[in-house]
């Protein structure tokens, strides 16, 4: 019996090649999309899931509130981090850690006296042995308890051990030394395997935290309770049943006992515990610039996969029922010969299962090509096939069964329900059930185009918002600016001045400033600043930028009151923005000039007021900000280039010459120059990738919808073959017949647009709420979408309608 079903299924699919190919394409597209999206979603949702007891592990994060705004930081101030382990009850383990510079220079002195220098090393942290009790790693040399319990010890992972000490067995690395920035000598005390699970905590070197406690090693913020940086973080592991909220409250209380804010201030600071599995997703608390997942995006991807699969199933139903009349006599004869309805349903479901299996095999062949196509959107570790993950094959098996059932059950019930007498009398087209099936088929077609049009509208709107973000006037110059980082905490600041002077001598460079991060960047530094004038006593959390007197000139920041800050090696004066001036209560910016701000136990005068500019992405509103001239934090060269020349070589020459000067001053460092406008564009990388993904999703949805549309018009023309013949005999033109056959279909597309518009508007309005500054949802997006889909529908219809209109009426009427 099975052999008969199988051979009949193959024979039926082969006989109807065109419909088989169309069905297979529709299902293969949907299954390919679902497979790739499953790989992406499964990748992100598996982060930190392999960590033992991950549900009991948390990261302490900082939350700030003011009358104007809320903002967040994944770090904790250093004194609080140091105080938590010994002052909070109910903690099983606590592991503070602090990131070293991501431009770290590591030097290895070989036995033969050779010095090997490794530049721009990322992934080193200071931490305690407890780190490995919270995030266990397999040890190949040493133990957690003995490896980080004294100053100047370092544990390497196997990748960094192979890099710094190639060819040396891991058990022989104990006692080997590394030199970090030529200032810290550390001795290897252990080696751990590289973590193979998916994690954001992929550090390569672990230096004992007690190294920082030495007087000559204590960082500038070692005792500053009001200075929060995401460089310093802490992980906690709680006992079973312990409330994370109660621990968070203890941490907040500990902070408030040691740092008393002004009672008149509207600002507040408190702490919360972020679950370990949320670290990969919560963009409010970034994790050392690692790629982060986005739950709404992942759920959106799942919705896209579901819709594309649904479209493939609808397409299958439309095409299968459209050719029902061609199989009616076959079904009538089978029933006359004794086939039961159950046997017919089994036969048709078997055909669907076979077709779905073939489509799935085709999808597996296409999956690596799709992954390569979206390589800049998909994490590098995702691959297919992945024999190490059996869940993929379970997912595919489940997908085949679900798609086969959804696609095949309705056509199987319809085809098996034909009555033999009516079928053999050629009356299948006139029964009442046909009318109901036509209504259902049209409803499914409208549903397909609703999904396709929602995707198109979303694609256009996301692209519009990205263009708005990249082109909006953010209050500063964006083009022709390059920044080059020098070592953080440079012991000889004159080297930076020397480099700046050499850069200014390059003819292609118009100006050079020494500062910290660019005025607009994702890097966060906030601090509490007080203002007192006898009447007001205002404390606020303020964003901090640092730069010399050329900083505002390079970026074109506009002074609206006062003057620029003067060059100084120490903090002597500040610039503030309009927003901060308004918070301080100055209606006229000139009133702020000369007033003193209290910061870090120092009174610092306000030298000038700057016009507001966006110091972060357009996701966030402009916050109060100061620009200080504190010399020991100036570690980045900001270069303003002259306009590009006609041959397009001026900037290339400028960067080449700048590289030569950089290497002459810092021969041990790797030269890297970044364009400011590119860094701004990278801040919207997620939106740009979303736009591209939606573009492809919209294209696939339209393609599948057009296949379904082709099925509907094929069914319509088959049912109206004799009507078309009669109309042609009576003098109807080709244009009139094409119009007759097309108008009902175009009406369905128009109905779909009316349904899609409010759905898309609601979804886009919600999506745009994440931006403080956003483009408007324009009416022309909906008109353009309608025009695009109608044109595509007409092109699709033309293949069948023109063919039907041009057919010989004699052939269609010969049986009458």
TrEMBL record:
InterPro entries membership: ABC3_permease_C, MacB_PCD, Macrolide_Exporter_MacB
Ranges for domain ABC3 transporter permease C-terminal: 303-416, 698-804
Signal peptide: none
Bilayer topology term: Multi-pass membrane protein
GO molecular function, one term: transmembrane transporter activity
Lineage: superkingdom: Bacteria
GO cellular component: plasma membrane
Main location: membrane
Positions of the MacB-like periplasmic core domain: 20-253, 450-616
Protein's cellular compartments: Cell membrane
A Pfam family: FtsX
Keywords: Cell membrane, Membrane, Transmembrane, Transmembrane helix
Protein name: Putative permease
